[in-house]
Design brief:
This protein is of the alpha/beta class. It has two domains: 150 residues, Rossmann fold (3-Layer(aba) Sandwich), CATH 3.40.50.1000; 71 residues, Orthogonal Bundle (DNA polymerase, domain 1). The chain has a six-stranded parallel β-sheet with strand order 3-2-1-4-5-6, sandwiched between helices. Helix 10 links the parallel strand 5 and strand 6. Helix 2 crosses helix 5 and helix 4 packs across helix 5. It is globular and about 55 Å long.
């Protein structure tokens, strides 16, 4: 865990000093904005439309992962394309796209933001940090959300579901974010809300601060050993 001294500076200023921090890689859903319920609802509708009843708690537990990976694991038992009949492979890809399209229709005109957004991003920029958002959601939907919560202007880099071949908890997405920011991993930190964010960052050799604003409890987050767990982003500034 990241130790902090009792002093006038904020936690983020202490992290910047301790690690010569140059940038932050933010997750999106559950971290900056609260559209997780819309994601869950989109999956639920698509599953039922295709004749599947999946407990919503199982869908919630997979938040932070790509639609394709969630459909594969919850409906097709995680089997590879080679292990599935052609008709099921086609159904897998179709259901994943149906979920993406359904989510687009469910994005609120004014998506709820997490405590401190967008002020936290503005303050990070004032402190000289470069900022990236890494999301398992498609570029189209990420851009809609970022524009509607008015934070796109703060970002220096963006990685979305189309940019990666292997989804979280594989580290590819966060490593691409680090690459786009142009700094060594030692000078970056990830902020995310899910156990999948923690696993992804850890596998990629990145530090991570977990925020308990998503679908995972503080205990669930702590069990995955992030560098720090905070109730929300305001805990940094």
């Amino acid at each position: 865990m990241i130790p902090f001294e009792t002093m006038a500076s904020t936690r983020m200023e202490q992290v910047i000093a301790r690690y010569t921090l140059k940038g932050i890689i933010f997750d999106l859903d559950g971290t900056l904005t609260n559209t997780l319920d819309q994601h869950v609802e989109a999956f639920d509708r698509v599953f039922k439309r295709n004749g599947y009843n999946v407990d919503r708690s199982k869908i919630q537990a997979n938040m932070g992962r790509r639609p394709f990976d969630i459909v594969r694991d919850l409906i097709f038992d995680g089997k590879s394309d080679d292990a599935l009949p052609k008709a099921q492979v086609e159904k897998l890809y179709r259901m994943a796209q149906e979920k993406i399209d359904m989510f687009t229709t469910l994005i609120p005109q004014h998506p709820p933001t997490m405590p401190g957004v967008p002020d936290v991003l503005a303050r990070a920029k004032q402190l000289g940090l470069k900022l990236a958002v890494v999301s398992s959601t498609t570029y189209k939907n990420v851009k809609i959300i970022l524009d509607r919560i008015d934070v796109y202007k703060y970002l220096d880099a963006l990685v979305t579901g189309e940019d990666v071949k292997i989804g979280k908890p594989h580290p590819e997405a966060f490593l691409k974010g680090a690459e786009k920011l142009g700094f060594p991993k030692e000078n970056l930190i990830v902020i995310g809300d899910s156990i999948h964010d923690i696993g992804s960052a850890r596998q990629g050799g990145l530090r991570i601060i977990a925020v308990a604003t998503g679908k995972h409890t503080v205990a669930e987050l702590e069990a995955k050993h992030p560098d720090l767990v905070i109730p929300n982003l305001l805990g940094l500034f």
